[in-house]
Specification:
The structure holds two protein chains of two kinds.
Chain A lengths: L1 E5 L3 H6 L11 E3 L14 H5 L8 H7 L4 E3 L3 H17 L4 E5 L2 E5 L4 H4 L2 H12 L6 E5 L2 H10 L5 E3 L5 H5 L11 H9 L5 H5 L3 H19 L16 E11 L2 H16 L9 E10 L4 E12 L2 H12 L6 E11 L14 H19 L5 E5 L11 E5 L2
Parallel strand pairs in A: 2-3, 6-7
Antiparallel strand pairs in A: 1-5, 1-6, 4-5, 8-11, 9-10, 9-11, 12-13
Helix pairs in contact in A: 12-13
Chain B lengths: L4 H6 L3 E2 L4 E2 L2 E3 L5 E4 L2 E14 L7 E10 L4 E7 L5 E3 L4
Antiparallel strand pairs in B: 2-8, 3-4, 4-5, 5-6, 6-7, 7-8
The chains are: A alpha+beta, B mainly beta.
């Protein structure tokens, strides 16, 4: 069976961990700076006051003037989530984290160890730890296990019988399905409000009316998804951190700090010569917030220059001066070396590779992403009239 | 098949090193004292560009290459035709 552990509003739970009194008041996770002003998860008291997650900030404050906005702590969320995953892994669960607050694991490997599915779920809930509010669900399908966890009470584990999955899903609301709001509104106008009603519609009609997303939601509603759980590779636990004597906003200083961090982390013996596939940059910001960016390298690398070039531009995204800067190696490559080419590519082969690389850049960054610098008046005394950027599309 | 006109519009040639508006606090002699809220530590060079005065779009700029207190090197100019301060690379 597939099990799902759900920690509703995990980011808010982490933010309120040090301020438990706020959990009893109307509080909500503040929107991220520079994004649409929509609220994150809200407390039960806020919900009772008419505020809900995804509500516009202005509307929420007008509805509940005493609403307390809590800032997200991205680094703390990641740390707590990672600790939760490690605790589960220590208990023998091979987990697949989806996002902070949601993970899956296959119960087959641990059923005999803990005396069945219910025993395994009980053990998983105990491994998560006391401060967090979590629910668990298990079913033979991934979506059904998520739905079971979503309707379970805090601390409760709900197991759905193999043969009754469709019956279990039928009375549940459509909000559990990964559908866009306007698609859900379309269905609502047609009188389709329950998962069972959607499952009863002809697949071709759903696909025609709602597109590929609707078709996928329809197959989830019919418990036909056969996505398996893919356990994550073990975490490396290799991290380095640099504390500044005072807050730093200057990109040059931050880049120098990044170079020092790279030197330190590349010299760590735990790496065992393996190259880096996924890396994260973290910072604690002046004023109490935190910042975190992850980067998956196109090709695993352990070259300082290449890593610096890949991570350097991320520093420009820091929203405030940093008190600390950190780096974490999230995933390492299995192999230790590169397959070198016997003959260096040149001529037509080199051009083919270049064209292929440019095509990939265009595919990922869109039209106009690849340009050529064409000199039009290099003698001009006005800098912007000397050259043009001409797209290569 | 009709080409997507929006896509064609998005992929037009663009000028390199276009000036960008900069927040500059002037000293009494017209030189920059603070650039983008950072104090100027030194002025390395100063020059003027007067061009295209025979056209309807004349260019009259007073350039400064400055070093900020953070160590950053920036080129800013005051545009006498349009008014205001701009920063520019490649100058």
């Amino acid at each position: 069976m597939i099990a799902c552990i759900l920690a509703p509003g995990f980011e808010l739970q982490v933010a309120l961990h040090d301020r438990p009194r706020l959990a009893l008041r109307a509080a909500a996770l503040a929107p991220l700076p520079g994004t649409e002003p929509l609220l994150g998860p809200v407390t039960a008291a806020a919900e009772a006051a008419g505020v809900h997650a995804g509500m516009r900030l202005g509307e929420a404050l007008a509805t509940c003037p005493t609403l307390v906005l809590v800032e997200r702590d991205a680094v703390q969320v990641h740390t707590e989530w990672e600790q939760m995953l490690v605790r589960l892994e220590d208990s023998g669960f091979a987990v697949e984290p989806v996002e902070p607050g949601c993970l899956y694991f296959d119960t087959r490997g641990v059923e005999r160890l803990y005396g069945g599915v219910a025993g395994a779920l009980k053990r998983a809930l105990a491994s998560v730890g006391a401060p967090w509010t979590v629910c668990a669900g298990a079913a033979d399908r991934r979506f059904a296990s998520l739905a079971a966890a979503a309707i379970a009470r805090p601390g409760q584990a709900l197991v759905v019988d193999d043969e009754r999955t469709r019956d279990f899903l039928a009375p549940l609301p459509l909000t559990l399905l990964p559908l866009e709001d306007d698609r859900r509104e379309d269905l609502d106008r047609l009188g389709v409000r329950k998962i069972g009603q959607l499952a009863g519609l002809p697949g071709s009609a759903v696909a025609e009316r709602l597109g590929p997303d609707g078709r996928r939601a329809w197959s989830l509603a019919r418990a036909e998804d056969d996505t398996k759980v893919t356990a994550r590779p073990p975490a490396t636990g290799i991290a380095e951190r640099l504390e500044f004597p005072e807050a730093v906003a200057n990109e040059l200083t931050l880049r120098r700090a990044l170079t020092v961090l790279l030197d330190r982390i590349l010299a760590r013996p735990e790496r065992g010569g393996r190259e880096i596939r996924k890396v994260a940059l973290t910072a604690r910001l002046v004023g109490g917030g935190s910042w975190r960016r992850t980067l998956t390298l196109r090709e695993p690398s352990a070259e300082r220059g290449g890593l610096r070039a890949a991570l350097g531009p991320k520093l420009a995204e820091l929203p405030a001066p940093a008190l600390t800067l950190g780096i974490e190696l999230l995933t390492l490559a299995e192999s230790e070396g590169h397959q070198l080419a016997l003959v260096r590519p040149e001529g037509e082969e080199l051009e083919t590779r270049l064209r292929d690389g440019l095509r990939q850049v265009r595919a990922s960054a869109g039209a106009g992403a690849v340009s050529t610098v064409v000199e039009v008046a290099p003698w001009s005394r006005i800098p912007e009239q000397r050259a043009l950027l001409v797209p290569r599309d | 098949m009709v080409a997507d006109s929006r896509a064609a519009g998005a992929a037009r040639p663009a000028r390199l090193n276009e000036p960008r508006a900069a927040l500059v606090e002037e000293c009494f002699d017209g030189s920059p004292g603070r650039v983008n809220r950072q104090p100027v530590a030194a002025i390395r060079e100063e020059w003027r560009v007067l061009d295209r005065w025979w056209t309807e779009e004349p260019v009259s700029r007073r350039y400064f290459e400055v070093v900020l207190e953070s160590g950053e090197n920036v080129v800013v100019f005051r545009d006498r035709e349009r008014g205001g301060w701009f920063s520019q690379r490649g100058a």
